[in-house]
Amino acid sequence: MKATLHVLLLSVVSMMVTGDVHLSERGTGPGCLVGTRLAFDLNTTLEETKRLNNEFFDCPNPEPGVPCFFYSHVFKPFFIIEGTVEGESDRFLDSYTFKVVGGGRTRGSVRNYSHEEILNFNSLSDSESSRQTLVWTYDDAPDSFRLTKEGFLLMSNASNRVRWLCQRNSPCGDLTPVNLLDPDFFFIIEVSNRETASSPFCEHTLRFELHAHGFPLDPVRGLFFMQMTMTVIQTILICYIGHTCWRLRQKTVHTKKRDGLDEQDGNQFKAGDVLVKVGSMLHSCFLQLYCIIFRIVQNPMLDHVIMLVVLFDTSTLIAQTFQGVTVRTGWCLSAVDSCLLVFYVVEAVFKILVRGRTYFRKPWNVLDFFIVFMSLLEFTLSLVQSAGGFSSRQASTLFRVLKTLKGARVFRALRLLKAIRFFKGLQAILLTCLQSFRSMSSIIVLMFLFLFIFTVIFREMFNESDPEHFGNIFRTIFTLFQILTLDDWSLIYMTSRDNGAPHIIYFLSLYIVVELFTFLNLFIAVLADNFQLSIRKKRQCKSQKSPDVKEGETQSGEKAVEDLEMCQVEIEEEFHKEALRRASSDSKQSKRKIELISRHLQLLAAMDQHMQKYRSEACLLDNLVETFFTDRDMETRSDNVE
Length: 642
What we know:
By secondary structure, this protein is of the alpha+beta class. Helix content is 60%, strand content 10%. It contains 16 helices and twelve strands.
C-alpha cells in the first residue's frame, strides 16, 4: 500500500514539474523499462525559447495548465524519459515524429483530427524540394532529412526547431480576432518514435496541448481590406464625378437653349456619322475625366485628407513600437495599415496621371513613390508566400527577402515628412539646412582633419597615463568626440594628472578652443547666415509678387494650368462642332456658310480668351501699383520716425 502511494505521489510531482500538459503518454515494447514514460519538458523549452528569440510573450488570456507561446517565435521542444517509480529523468535523445493531431479556436472546441487530416496537415507532398507542411515548417532542417513512409519528418534534438506557418488550407489559417485581440489557437501535438529505425524495442508516444497566440493578418484578408477601402474611395469619386458631370450637363443645356438649338434635333443624324459621334463623345468624356482628376489633385482638400492619413498612420506606427500593443493588437494594426496604403497608392496614381514625368522632378514625390513601392513590394511577396507551392530553396530565399523588407519597413516612418509640404515654415527650415551642407562641407573636412591630428597626438602622449581613454586609436577618437561635447573632460584631465601627466590640460584646452569654439561655432554661423539669406529672399518674393498670386508657380503647376485651359478649349470646340453638325443636318446649309459660322464661333472663343487674359493682367497691374504705393508710404513713415 505504501509503495502504491509512493508511486502516485511521484507521478503527481512529475506532472507539476513538466507543466501538467500531458493528454496521454505510453511506452510499449520489450526494451522499455517498467514505470517510464515520455514527458514534455516545459521549463527547458521555455528557457530555450527565450534564448532563441531574445524575448517571451505570455498569452493575454492564458489557460491554466496549457503552455502558451507566441506565433512568430521559434518553438524548440524538449522531452525527457521520466521514471514514475524512482523519480529520475533522462533527456530523450531518440529521433521522433512531430505531428499536429488536433486543435481548435478555443479550448472547448478542440477536436482530434482524422487520419486523412493528419496526413494533409503534417506530411510533405514533395520530399525532395519541400520541407514545410501546411501548419509548421522545419526551421533548422539540414540539407538532407529523413522521412517516414507516410511522409512525416523525422526530428532530433540536434535539429528540432519549429516555426508555425498556418497556411490558408490549414485549420489555423486566416484566423480573425475576438474583442480586438490577436487570434489564438490550441494545438494537440503528438510526438512518437514508433516509426524510427533507431528504437525498435521501445516505442514512446506522447500527446500534449499547446496554446499559440498573436497570429498575424493573412495577406489575402489584407487584400480584402484593401479592396473594401478602394471600393469606398471609388464610390466617393464616382459621386464626385457624377456631380461634376451633372453640372457640366446643365451648363451645356443652358448654352444650347441660349444658342437656339434643340436637343431633339441632335437625335436625327446619318448612319455614317455614328462612329464619328461615338468617338467624339468618348474623347469628350476622357477630357472631362482628366479635368476632374486635375481638379481633385489641385484641390486643397486632398492635401488635408492625406495629412490626416499621415498623422493617423504615424500614430499606429508609434503604437507598434510597444511590445504589449503589438502582441495583443498586431492583427488590427496590420489591417489598418493595409487600408491606409490604398490612400497613398491613389494619391500617387492621380498625381502621376496629371503631372506625368514632372511628378518625379520633386524630391518629396520621389520619396513618396519609393515608400509606396516598398510597401507594395512587401505586401505582394507576403501574398505570394501565403499561396504556398514553393520548394525549400525558394521558400527560404523568399523568407530572407521578407525579413529584409521587414527591416525596410522603417521607411514608413518617413511618411511623416509628407506633412512638411503643408507647413511653409518647416519646409523653409529643412531646405535651408539642406542647402547649408554645400557651404559647410569644407568646415566639416577641416574638423575631421584636426580631429585626426589631435587623435595621433593624444594617442602617442597619453596612452600610458590613461589607457582606458587613449589605449588605441578608436578609443581616442571616441574620447575626443566626447570632449567635443564638453562631457566629463575634467574627469579625463584628473585621471591623467593622477597618473603623472598634468600637462594634458594644455592639449585639452587647445583642442577645445580649435574644435569647439572655432570650427563648431563657425559651422553654426554659416547655418545662421543661410537662414538670414532665406528670410531676405522670402521677403523680396513677397514684395515682388501680388497677394493674389498663389504659391504654386512652378513649372509643373504652370503646365497643369495650361493643360486645364487646353482641356476646356477642346471641350468647347467639340461642343461647337457638334452644334454645327446638328444644325447643318436639319437646315441643309451650304458648306461655305457652315465654314463662316465655324470661323465666327472660333473668333468669339478667341476674343473671350483674350478678354480673360486682359482682365487678369489688369488685376495684376492694379495690385502691383497698390503694392508700390503701399511700400513707398511705409518707407516715408519710417524715414519720418527716424
